[in-house]
Amino acid sequence: MLATRTSQAVCKARNAVTKSDLEQFFSSLIKAVVANRLDASRVFNMDETAFQTNKGSKRVVAVRGSKNVWHQDVALNFHLTLVACGSASGCMVPPLTIKNI
Hints:
- By secondary structure, this protein is α+β, with helices and mostly antiparallel strands.
- It contains 2 helices and 3 strands.
- The protein has helices at residues 12-15, 19-35, and strands spanning 44-52, 79-87, 92-100.
């Protein structure tokens, strides 16, 4: 069953990554790990996710034939960013929360 979704933008550079780009990246990564004698406790990965209010579409999926279709209007306008980080050995760094009102 299909549903209406709001898409996210993908930058042109990210969309244009080739197989050889990935092979070169992982080759460089392996060389750096070996040269610096890194073990799993010294290799970290970090990711951030942003949440914003008052963004997005007012389009919703509703039962066909519905007369009154509503969406909730958010009165607050803020930006929230969550940052998570952990090592390859499983050690997690406490998450960072950045709130901009």
